[in-house]
Automatic annotation (TrEMBL):
InterPro entries: Kinesin-like_fam, Kinesin_assoc, Kinesin_motor_CS, Kinesin_motor_dom, Kinesin_motor_dom_sf, P-loop_NTPase, SMAD_FHA_dom_sf. Residues 663-685 are annotated as: Disordered. Residues 1-275 form the Kinesin motor domain. It comes from Noctiluca scintillans. One of its GO terms (molecular function) is microtubule motor activity. This is Kinesin-like protein. Residues 667-677 have a biased composition (Acidic residues).
Length: 685
C-alpha cells in the first residue's frame, strides 16, 4: 500500500471527524523496523500521514469548502516523548523545576499541564516544529542504543473552530508513534519486571492489558481498567474508551523470520477492533469560556487562601505540597482556557527565538541557517544516521574551511575553546577530534582525545588511535563516541541526503557501523586465540566463522559496558568480558550449535567472579546500564550512581534476588559463595 492510499483510507477519515468536532487518535503499533515511522512521517519525497494531514488541514483553514464554514480556525501543536515513564516536551526541552504529568479534567478531558502548545498558521510552521522535535530526540542519544526505538512520541494538533454565532468547536488529533512491540515479548520471555530504567517498554504491556479488558467489556461490568498504570495509557484514556474516534495502524514485517512478531501484532489488532468508544462533539457556547475561567480563578483563590492558612499554622509538609500542587494545576488550566489567540501567537514567536538559540548552542545547522551564514552549496557537511528512520538526516553540521578546524567534543559555549560540533554522550570527552577541510581537496580527521579509554572515534568501522590522521572522502561513516553515527557528504552531486537517502540502508548501515569490531586490539587478540583453539579441535571453517561473528558482536557490547561503568563511577570495581562456554560447546558439538556465549562479570583487582550471564540476558542488562548513564548525564555526573543488576544462572535463565554490582559489594563470604557456584556451573556442566 502506497503512502497516498494509506492517507486516503486512514488519514482523511480522521481529519473529517476532527472538522466535525470529534477528536481523533491514530497510533501505530508493531515491531521495530516494520515501518511505523515511515507510515506516520515518511520522507519528503513520499510523505506519510502527518505531513499530508497537516497540509490538508491548513488548506481547509485558509479556504474552507464546507457549506457552513467556521469564520476562524485556530490550530495549536504539541509534541512530547514518553521514555521510562517520564514525559519530555520536545518543543521546549529546557530544564523544568517540575516534571510534566498527565491530568484528567471533567470538562477538558485528558491533557498535560504546562506542555507547550505552539500556535501555528501554516503547514511550514507545523513541519518546522516537528523537525525541531526530531532534532531534540536525535541529540538525546547518549549511548549505542537509540532511546527513540524504546520511546513513544505523541504529536497533537488542537483545532478550535470559531463560528459566526460565537460558538467554539474544539477537537484534536493525536498521532502516536509507539515503541517497538517486540520489547514486550522479550520481557515476558526473560522474566524481567517492568520498572524504570529497564530496557523493556512496560507501557506497551499495560496498553495490552487495557485493550484486553476493554475488548472483554470490563469497563461496562464495573471492572477496574488500569489506565493510570502507565503514562501512555493515561494519556490515551479518552482515545481508548472516551471521546475519540480511534484508529490503530498495525505494522508487520514481511520477513519469514519475524512471523511470530507479525502474528502477535495481528492478534493485538484483533483485540483492538472489539473496543468501542463514544465520541461526542465538544462545543462551547459564547459565555462558557468566561464562566469556566471564573470558576478556575475562584478555585485558585481558595487554594491560595488555604495554602497561606496552612503555612502560618505550620502544617505537615505533605499538606502544603498537596495544596501547592493543586494550585499549580488550576493555574495551568486557567492559562490554557484564558489565553487569547493573540497571546498564543506572541508566545509562539518568543518560543521560536528560544528554539533557534537552543539549536545554535548545540552547533546545529539547518538550511535557513546555512543560507544566512553564506554557506555555499558545495560545502561538505556531516549528516546523522539513526536506527530510527524518522531521525536519520535531521542533524546537520557544516565543516569549516582551512585554516579553521571543525572540532568535535563535549565542551559548551562557555569554555575557553568551544567545539564546532558539541555532542553529549558515552565516549565523547571535552575534545574528541579535529577535522581539517581545504576546499578542492579531501578532508582529514585526527583524534586528539588524550584519554584513549574514554574517547572513541570510528571511521568506516576502524577505531582510531590518538594522533592518527585519516583522509576522508564522500560517503565515509564516522562514529563519535558510542551514540552518534554520521555520513560525510562532499560536493553537490548527492541531492538525496536530507530526507530519503537513508530510507533503505540506514538501519543495516548503522548496525554494521556500530558493531564493527575491526581494529580493536583486545578483540583481535581474543578472536585469534579462539580461532586457534577451534582449529586445534577440528571445528569446520564455516562454523568457526559463525562463532567469531557472534563473539565479535558481543565483545563490542562488552567494551561499551565497561565504558559505561567507567564513566558512571570514578573507580568501579567491576569489569566484564566475554568467554566461549568451551566445556559445553565441544562436549555437545553436534547437538548444540552455535555454541553458548556467556558474559562473565568479574570484580577487580582480585578477579572474583560475581555473575555469569547468557548473551541475551546481558543485552537486557546493558540497556539498563545505558539508561542509568543517560540519567547520570541529565542529573549531574558529580553524584554517586549505583545500578542494580540481577544475577541470572546462565544454564536456566532463572532470576536470583537483585545484587548490587555497581554499588558497594556484599560481604566477602557472600560474594565468594556465589562466585564459586557460578564458576563451577560453567566449567562442569
Amino acid at each position: 500500500m502506497g503512502q497516498d492510499l494509506l492517507y486516503e483510507q486512514v488519514g482523511e477519515p480522521i481529519l473529517e471527524n476532527v472538522l466535525e468536532g470529534f477528536s481523533g487518535t491514530l497510533f501505530a503499533y508493531g515491531q521495530t523496523g516494520s515501518g511505523k515511522s515511515h507510515s506516520i512521517m515518511g520522507p519528503d519525497s513520499d510523505p506519510g500521514i502527518i505531513p499530508q494531514l497537516a497540509r490538508q488541514l491548513f488548506e481547509i483553514a485558509e479556504r474552507d469548502p464546507r457549506p457552513n464554514p467556521a469564520s476562524e480556525m485556530r490550530i495549536q501543536m504539541s509534541f512530547l516523548e514518553i521514555y521510562n515513564e517520564e514525559l519530555k516536551d520536545l518543543l521546549d526541552p529546557r530544564p523544568r523545576t517540575k516534571k510534566l504529568y498527565v491530568h484528567q479534567h471533567p470538562k477538558l478531558g485528558v491533557y498535560v499541564p504546562h506542555l507547550t502548545e505552539a500556535a501555528t498558521d501554516s503547514v511550514s510552521d507545523c513541519m518546522r516544529l516537528l523537525d525541531f522535535g526530531a532534532k531534540i530526540r536525535a541529540t538525546a542519544q547518549t549511548n549505542m542504543n537509540s532511546t527513540s526505538s524504546r520511546s513513544h512520541s505523541v504529536l497533537t494538533l488542537r483545532v478550535a473552530q470559531v463560528f459566526s454565532n460565537g460558538k467554539i468547536r474544539n477537537s484534536s488529533v493525536n498521532l502516536c508513534d509507539l515503541a517497538g512491540s517486540e520489547r514486550v515479548k522479550k520481557s515476558g520471555a526473560q522474566g524481567q519486571r517492568m520498572r524504570e530504567g529497564a530496557s523493556i517498554n512496560g507501557s506497551l504491556s499495560v496498553l495490552g492489558q487495557v485493550i484486553s479488558k476493554l475488548a472483554s467489556g470490563a469497563d461496562k461490568k464495573g471492572v477496574h481498567v488500569p489506565y493510570r498504570q502507565s503514562k501512555l495509557t493515561h494519556l490515551l484514556m479518552d482515545a481508548l474508551s472516551g471521546n475519540s474516534v480511534t484508529t490503530m495502524l498495525a505494522n508487520v514485517s514481511p520477513a519469514q523470520s519475524e512471523a511470530d512478531e507479525s502474528m502477535g501484532t495481528l492478534r493485538f489488532a484483533e483485540s483492538v477492533k472489539k473496543v468501542r468508544t463514544k465520541p461526542q462533539v465538544f462545543e462551547l457556547a459564547p459565555e462558557e469560556p468566561a464562566q469556566l475561567m471564573e470558576s478556575l480563578n475562584l478555585q485558585i483563590k481558595l487554594l491560595q487562601s488555604a495554602l497561606e492558612k496552612e503555612r502560618t499554622s505550620a502544617p505537615g509538609r505533605g499538606v502544603a505540597r498537596a495544596i501547592d500542587s493543586s494550585q499549580d494545576l488550576m493555574q495551568s488550566l486557567a492559562k490554557r482556557v484564558g489565553t487569547s489567540w493573540g497571546e498564543a501567537v506572541e508566545e509562539t514567536q518568543a518560543l521560536k527565538v528560544v528554539q533557534q538559540k537552543l539549536l545554535e548552542d548545540m552547533s546545529l545547522s539547518v538550511e535557513e541557517v546555512g543560507q544566512l551564514a553564506g554557506v555555499g552549496a558545495g560545502t561538505p557537511y556531516l549528516l546523522n544516521i539513526s536506527d530510527d528512520p524518522s531521525l536519520s538526516g535531521c542533524l546537520l553540521y557544516f565543516l569549516r574551511s582551512d585554516p579553521e578546524l571543525t572540532t568535535v567534543g563535549q565542551s559548551g559555549a562557555g569554555s575557553i575553546a568551544p567545539n564546532s560540533i558539541m555532542l553529549r554522550g558515552l565516549g565523547i570527552p571535552a575534545k574528541l577530534c579535529e577535522i581539517r577541510y581545504s576546499p578542492g581537496s579531501k578532508a582529514v580527521v585526527r583524534k586528539v582525545s588524550a584519554d584513549a579509554e574514554k574517547g572513541r572515534l570510528v571511521v568506516n568501522g576502524r577505531p582510531l588511535d590518538t594522533g592518527v590522521y585519516v583522509n576522508l572522502q564522500h560517503g565515509d561513516r564516522l562514529i563519535f563516541g558510542w551514540a552518534f553515527c554520521f555520513r560525510l557528504v562532499m560536493g553537490s552531486s548527492d541531492q538525496r541526503t536530507r530526507s530519503d537517502s537513508f530510507d533503505s540502508v540506514s538501519t543495516e548501515l548503522l548496525r554494521y557501523s556500530m558493531t564493527s569490531s575491526m581494529g580493536s586490539m583486545s578483540i583481535i587478540r581474543a578472536t585469534t586465540q579462539w580461532q586457534a583453539e577451534m582449529q586445534r579441535r577440528g571445528v569446520p571453517d564455516d562454523q568457526a566463522e559463525q562463532v567469531l561473528s557472534i563473539v565479535g558482536e558481543q565483545m563490542v557490547l562488552v567494551e561499551e559496558a565497561n565504558a559505561l561503568c567507567s564513566e558512571m563511577r570514578d573507580a568501579i570495581p567491576t569489569i566484564l568480558h566475554v568467554e566461549l562456554d568451551i566445556g559445553l560447546t565441544f562436549s555437545f558439538l553436534h547437538s548444540a550449535w552455535p555454541p553458548t556465549v556467556v558474559v562473565h562479570v568479574l570484580q577487580q583487582p582480585e578477579g572474583r567472579m560475581l555473575a555469569v550471564w547468557p548473551a541475551d540476558d546481558f543485552d537486557c542488562r546493558l540497556n539498563g546500564l545505558r539508561d542509568a548513564h543517560r540519567e547520570a548525564l541529565q542529573q549531574g555526573v558529580g553524584k554517586r550512581w549505583a545500578f542494580r543488576l540481577s544475577c541470572v544462572e546462565w544454564w536456566a535463565g532463572q532470576v536470583k534476588p537483585l545484587r548490587e554490582i555497581a554499588a558497594p559489594a556484599a560481604s566477602d563470604e557472600e560474594s565468594n559463595s556465589e562466585a564459586d557456584e557460578s564458576f563451577t556451573a560453567l566449567v562442569s556442566p
